[in-house]
Amino acid sequence: MLWLLLAVPALISAYVLLLRRKKKIAMSFPNLGIIRQALDDSSKIKRHIPPSLLLVALCLIIVASARPTAIVSFASRGGTIIMALDVSGSMRATDVDPSRIAAAQIAAKSLINDRTSQTRVGIVAFSSAAVLVQAPTTNTVALDAAIDGLKPQYATAMGDAVLASLQMIFPQTKSGTKGQGSDGDQAMSTVTLNGVFNSNVPSKPALAPVKPGSYRSAAIVLMTDGQNTAGVDPIEAARAAANLGVRVFTIGFGTTNGQTIDFDGRQILAVLDEDTLKSMASMTNAQYFHAQSAKELTKVYKQLTTKLQRESQETEISVFFVAAATIFGTLSALLSTLWFHRIF
Fold this sequence. Notes:
- The protein is an alpha/beta fold.
- Helices cover 43% and strands 21% of the residues.
- Strand 9 (259-263) and strand 10 form a beta hairpin.
- Helix 7 packs parallel to helix 8.
- The protein is elongated and about 110 Å long.
């Protein structure tokens, strides 16, 4: 359809020829009125405006017929956010006032309170295994209570946390072993997803891999202050999320240089593995964030709330070109009628 724009130069040429023809006719039958109009500079300019506006309208109609599209951002009508929160022993550290775990709880609540009422939130806590703390819900009271009940344990199983989060999003893909976590919560260990994480495991039915980040109905937000020390390789778990199109936004809480923390009389060196977190976010078409204080962590969650509650989609925008063409065409007709007492 855009090839039709090649007709525009031809129309301009035809318009110029028409003007020359009218000028010859006017010179053949001169009279005072015609000469006065020819000498009027403002009239010269005015007579070209309506045809120019009409030509613009025609070009817009041609472009609209080509059905142009654009990436349009709009508010999400809902969706699901799975918060995977680190509750390893290093979260007991008091280098962040009043403690890392308390700061993480306050920040997590900021995401819950700032989300739209239609957005469901689920909570996974992970230490030596991933624990399903709260199934996705819109109940703010239940979510706040679940976060308040988090208590630091041992180890850090980031990979298990991602897989447990995926099973919240795609419950039909559950397989693997289950156990009981603290307080009766359901714990996941050595979990797999049908045909996505481990092709050697029998599955029914397998989910075909899709483009990373293409699943916009849900996302995972994983926060940790350390590095993976147990369970499934987090890179492999992120690959499973990428194959399902689910984005895994990662948050590193703490310092990359490491910090020695006293935990039950033992000295633990907490080192933030930024490289792994960045890789997990990158391969799932998401983003990595870093925070070193409670205030920064809360700010990150607020940024994520805005990001996750807006969607981008390729949308046809021909209607805007048609609307603009209508405005230019109508304006052309109105000016022609007002100045020359004819539509065109």
